[in-house]
Amino acid sequence: MTERVTANLFRTRLDEVAAATETTLDTLLSPLVRPGEIERPARLLEAMRYSSLGGGKRLRPFLVVESARLFGAEGEGVLRAAAALEMVHCYSLVHDDLPAMDDDDLRRGRPTAHKAFDEASAILAGDGLLTYAFDVLADGATHKDATVRADLVLGLARAAGLGGMVGGQALDLEAEKATAPHQPQAIMTLQAMKTGALLLYAVEAGARIGGADADQRAALVKYGRALGACFQVADDILDAEGDEAALGKRAGKDAGRNKATLVSALGLDAARERRDMLAIDAIEALEEGGFGEKAAVLAEAARFTAARRS
Amino acid sequence: MTERVTANLFRTRLDEVAAATETTLDTLLSPLVRPGEIERPARLLEAMRYSSLGGGKRLRPFLVVESARLFGAEGEGVLRAAAALEMVHCYSLVHDDLPAMDDDDLRRGRPTAHKAFDEASAILAGDGLLTYAFDVLADGATHKDATVRADLVLGLARAAGLGGMVGGQALDLEAEKATAPHQPQAIMTLQAMKTGALLLYAVEAGARIGGADADQRAALVKYGRALGACFQVADDILDAEGDEAALGKRAGKDAGRNKATLVSALGLDAARERRDMLAIDAIEALEEGGFGEKAAVLAEAARFTAARRS
Predict the structure, then answer these.
(1) Do B158 and A137 touch (CB under 8 A)?
(2) Phi, psi of A258 (to 5 degrees)
(3) How many domains does chain B have?
(4) What is the ipTM, given to two decimal places?
(5) CATH code at A140?
(6) pTM to 2 decimal places
């Protein structure tokens, strides 16, 4: 496939998965009460919908869907797993934006949840989304094999928990208060936890649902790690050079806050070089996995991650 | 068994389960990194330990353990499920105590997590505990059958989510702002969600692990519902009449805040009557389940719930 055709296919798939994720989230976050629930309070549901619907590229769902597709797996179960992961991502944004954390007023060009509702609602909406993600994964509608469901839950909990995303956010807040310069290795660990863990989980979930063998799984893990690291350094670069309008959030805020970023630790040029090397690593991992043309869209995702401007 | 002997046995079992839960939580919340985790940040781990260790009667773990014991199930797996549920309970206390929520400075006679650490750490410690609960349940060490593990996850997510505990807290905060008097039925729904759902889950989890049949499960569900309702009305009564020293938290705060309680809706006498009736309902449910003498400790838990002074 020519590069142009692959790039177009990637854009099409990204849009398709975003639309399907939106539909799945909309259905899951309907007022319909499920067995074991008592009532879905309207305002809380509204805050959860506000925090998860109508925004974002849905990169994580895309990675779940495209990784599963490598093995011919598709349909409702895959989309449910993708939506569950997106709920965890959205909850993390809601909590990270809180006044006690990053104190952000804007997210994707809209008021953050605690601004649109109130702080208590934002905390509870985040708690509700995180909890619901595990509900969705454990439900028989996601996969007929309970072993797969339990594995999906365990993997997400580890990726999102104290040894992953939540731990990464804790380290990030500590780094902000630090007076000594941030060491590159510490920043990479922090980013692997805060951002990388969920991106890695996305491809692992796809591999698990698709029934990847050990070699295929190892290749996807390598891809997911490189992609996650690439994504975060690209984010740091965008923040350093970006403009507020394109990002829909305050730009340049990292430097003003002593945020631990690879741009501050390595400099802009070295950070760009690292970003591009990581995209190449990700693409090579797919080649090692022997997925051939089937992985063209995932390879394009790595190129897109390195080249994105917002 | 005489009443005195049963009461003593109950106290002994409650203490035993509390000690075993403490040990299990301590092990789970060690610095040891599990597969799929990257690092356990020291301060976050400390905040999670502070929020979950060293306090409380551990009534929920007790209910898990004693319900499972009805069917001869005991050991590490049961304790892990009990500890997971307690993590969810503890996370809910940490988030409920936040300035944006109930704004409490004291919990069990100690500074609340956001006072002992800071608000961001308290939010993240809560998030970490909630996430970890699902990790523990989904892990093969909790039960060898993945279907049971997936069911335990699904049940906890429904009980703790927007249609259960989190939804109940949202309704509770709304009720505080309401100007119209609180209707008893609305308060009962709110309490069934906020407090009842996790207590009910406790006995359901024990039944699931123990392999209860449909009739036994139905009886335990009836017991769990009555016990949960009894627990909450007893709590309302204690708050209305309690003194600060005995509770380790500010007493009388419900009335000062327009909290939706059954004491304010029914009056103290009717609330006491309801509390005692619910304890009887719970005990009768155990008799209907045909558990005989094996359920004496659970029956005593219902008496204890109605009679407790702190």
Answers:
(1) no
(2) 60, 35
(3) 1
(4) 0.95
(5) 1.10.600.10
(6) 0.95
